[in-house]
Amino acid sequence: MAQGRGFDDKGHDARLPDAEPHYRGHRERLRARFRDAGSEAVTDYELLELLLFRALPRRDVKPLAKALITKFGSFAETIAAPPQRLAEVPGLGEAAITEIKIVQAAAHRFARGEVKRRPVLSSWSAVLDYCRTAMAFAEKEQFRVLFLDKRNQLIADELQQVGTVDHTPVYPREVVKRALELSATAIILVHNHPSGDPTPSRADIQMTQAILGVARSLGIEVHDHIIVGREGHASFKGLRLI
Questions:
Q1: Which residue from 7, 59, 164, 233 has the least number of CB within 10 angstroms?
Q2: What gap in Å lies between CA 135 and CA 68, rounded to an integer?
Q3: Hey, where are the domains in the chain?
């Protein structure tokens, strides 16, 4: 192409900074390593680099990726961060934030698809993966209910309440009312602990017992109550609290 239009004889933009050939080569090497060796061959910040390449094609994004990991702690926590907190990172604009949230949405849908394909109780690891993907890194407590049919397949997955950093208001009769509206015969309760520690609190136990009392009187089984956090998960059934 003609140099007068801003391109050199190889078709590269001659107006870009001198550093661009350096990070162009870095991008290609990183893409090749990911392509040839898989995701385990790249670090969290390098995975973020790969993600940011599309949104920021003419910048060295390594410093930005490292800044995100420093602020949020990991790749998972970065993509789960609210847009307003991502915007606090210098150099991260709307286009890059959108790319990050697209990846979060894709991960959520993939995990949900794994749960919907087969009976929930025979694919428990997929259920746990889905719950962690959906909620583990949220900054406020969320209360979610998985509604199941008589074959224990997922009818609906609904976010019932969003609370504060350490409390979510839950109304047992509303949970059971919604189960009846959906003709669900069983439910799984899920909520997160933004503190990271999934250990059930006294309030969690009391709330679960209240839902159990209302649900069982109407023929609805509560299979489990799962609490997720950055440090893992807790199962009420596994802890013999149900």
A1: 164
A2: 20
A3: 3-106, 120-235
Residue count of the chain = 242
- Strand, coil or helix: 158: strand
Residues 222, 160: Cα–Cα separation, whole Å: 16
Highest CATH level, class, for 120-235: alpha beta
DSSP letters spanning 60-127: --HHHHHHHHHHHSSHHHHHHS-HHHHTTSTT--HHHHHHHHHHHHHHHHHHHHHHHTS-GGG-HHHH
Sequence-ordered list of residues with C-beta below 8 angstroms from that of 220, at least 6 positions apart, any chain: 176, 179, 180, 184, 185, 186, 187
| Max intra-chain CA distance, the chain | 80
Specify the pairing of strand 186-192 against strand 142-148: antiparallel
Model-wide pTM > 0.70: no
Copy the structure tokens of residue 212: 């159990």
Residue 76's Cβ-side half-sphere holds a number of Cα atoms within 13 Å equal to: 13
Distance CA 19, CA 123 (A): 50
Determine the straight-line distance between the first and last CA of the chain, rounded to whole angstroms: 71
Q: Which two tokens stand for residue 230?
A: 């950055």
